[in-house]
Task: structure prediction
Amino acid sequence: MKKRILSLLLSIVMVAAMLPTTVFATIYEFQTVDMHSLTRGDVVTKGTVIYVSTKGSYIDYPKQISSDYPADRGPTYSRQGYYTCDKNYYVVHSYGADRTLYLYPLPTVTFNANGGSVDMESKWVIPSPGTNCTYGDLPTPTRTNCTFVGWFTAAEGGTQVTSSTTVTQTSNHTLYARWIPHSITFNYQPNGGSPADNNVTWVATADGIFPDNHWNYTNSSDKNYMTRTGYTATGYYAKTDGTCLYGQDFVFESYEDLCAKYGVSTSTQSTTIDIYAQWSPNTYTVSFNGNGATGGSTAAQSFTYDTAQNLRANGFQQKYTVTYDLGDGPTATSATATSTFKGWNTATNGSGTAYSNQQSVKNLTATNGDAVTLYAQWTKGSVTLPSPQKTGMVCTGWYTSSGTKVGDCGGNYTPSDNITLYAHWETLGHTVTWKNYDGTILETDAAVAQGATPTYNGAIPAKPDTTEKSYIFSGWSPAISPVTGNVTYTAQFTETPRQYALGLAYDETKGELTGNENAPVGSVVTVNVLPNNGYGVKEITAYKTGDKSTSVSIDSTSYTFIMPAFDVTVEVSWVESDVIYTSAYKDIEPTFTVTIPATVGLGNEIAVKAEDVRLNKGSQVEISIADAIGLNAPFTMTSGEGYTFNYQITAGGAVVSPGAKVLVINPDTSSEGNTILKFEKPNRAVYAGNYSGSVIFTIAVKSAENNSIE
Result:
């Protein structure tokens, strides 16, 4: 019993210690208390009987205070009686004017440090006389690496309370401490790389709230916030000078450990630290492929990204041996074709990126651990094919075992592998081929000795005539010469217009047609027409012989036409006429100019001639000469001033007088004739100056009866 009482007393003392010592006088427990003995601040406990009385009044039964009473005041009694407390604690607030006793329940406030610690775990809240109840002095909690911001009515959310906040709850309740955890914000800097996204940050807080909700930041996907071509991220520096390096896993035991490593005070509420990506340049291997090399080697190389390095010198070789099999000729020989190295390429066929021998290169790939292969590029070497000699034979070329010719003797050959070539032999001599104009082979002469002049022994080459041209063999092209190799001669031809026959159709009783028997195509053909006395030409026509519907244009005046490419017949029809026909003749009318005293033109001779004269029988041509001044007047020459002098004309030594005949042509004796006239000089020139004169030849056709037609 004593232990229980002692425990209760300790409890009361603790509660009392929480209350201001001036607000209550006594604690009443398990006893009957007269209302008039209570003062403001007295605390009565559960079970205490309060005797309520007033002068002259009496209450028959005790009254218990229930929770249904208003929170701002306790029960009011006006009559005498008893009241038994049913709550843990009540505090006397005040008396009414009529000595009414006001009792309030005494609520307990519990302080939840919310992760921290607090010296005062709970307290009673005792209202001040005449006012509402306030929280009064509130304790200050503590929490490592956090800043206290106040007490709130809820762990999250709720309303913040202070010492002056009015208490609205009459029941026991809890207040919660609110904290701001200290934090470090890490800003990732690419440090030569590129961020995978914008504003990449990572926040470490004192309450252990990390991106992956634990201290060991090991999420592999978060290691690669940054990327950099040709580099691998190996960690992050807190400083650009490479100090404070922490691995990409960010393993920390606690927030304190993190602050210690980064030199941050745990009392700092928040701070920002830039951390810089640490990069390791990627490495890769370059291998060299001989790409058809026949010997040698080139070792692989290791490269580091962004570091230039010379490629290894080429150690490969490419050589091919060509063996010459001469058959039954001299002993076989061989030659080596050495290719020239011209550089490296990323593609075997040279279509990729090219590099020269020992070129300084870098960054052939950006992938870590990658392997790059470079292929040798070659310019193939060649050999000169031999020109072997063999009695009575000639080497015509070199061939593969499958019979493919690779080149002539003395030519160049580029092998692509080791190979044996075989000489082809032919009997010494050359082939001479004779061809016609159209390529037809007329004759082939085989095994013609070197230097011999070939001879054609066949029929004379011919080329068919066309309607317009004839062809005559004229020789060979090229000109025949001593043989130095196989040769082909082609027949050549001279072309000439083709001749076609001329036929004449006429009634010879009325006249005559004459002309050549044939004429070449395109030439001008003239026919002569000679009507008999009493007839003239009515019409003359030309046409294809045997086909009058194919006409040929002929001039009806000159009796000419152009010879076509076929035989032509010329036909004339006659009409009766009284005109005597004369053929062609020539008249000559010389004019002389005399300069005196210089040698004058007189003394010259001139021939008067009638050619191709054809007359009807009984007719003749008479040519007379007359002075230009007048018939039967002397022959004279006149100057520009009107002075004249006479001169003579002689024919056969005889003086010709004006009007005398100088030439007579008789068809009965001759078809043509001529005479020579001489213009005699006078004995002396009387006057100097330029003189001129003229004569007129008169030509007439006269019949035997002396009838004439001028």
